[in-house]
Amino acid sequence: MSPGYTEAMRIPLRRGRLIDEHDGGEAPRVALISESIAKHRLVGLDPIGQRLRIGDGSLYTVVGVVGDVRQMSLALTESDAVYVPRRAVALCG
Fold it and tell me: Which of 55, 66, 73, 74 lies 20 to 30 Å from 10, alpha-carbon distance?
């Protein structure tokens, strides 16, 4: 996701901070998680600072918790979401 995505999509920040232009590239890997993940999967823990394995198994540090959003359909109840910054890719050629 690009900086400003959560604001454009009107996804509210509940705790911590949003992803910004300093995240990505060579910066440490960070992520935002939805409230539902914080509530159901990190029971009794402060989600800020927790480390999660995402995608290819890379570790990401949670820097913020955002409101739940129905991603695919209003009929679906699953609102777990993880948002990570786009990482710069160097092209060789």
Answer: 55
pLDDT at 91: 39
- Integer Cα distance of 38 and 26 in angstroms: 27
Q: How far apart are CA 11 and CA 67, in angstroms?
A: 6
Question: Do β-strands 58-66 and 30-34 pair in parallel, antiparallel, or remain unpaired?
Answer: parallel
- Beta strands (DSSP E) in 47-92 are 51-54, 58-66, 82-83
Token duo for residue 24 = 């990505």
Token readout for 76 is 């679906």
- Backbone dihedral angles phi then psi of residue 26, each to the nearest 5 degrees: -90, 0
Query: Which residue type sits at 83?
Result: Y
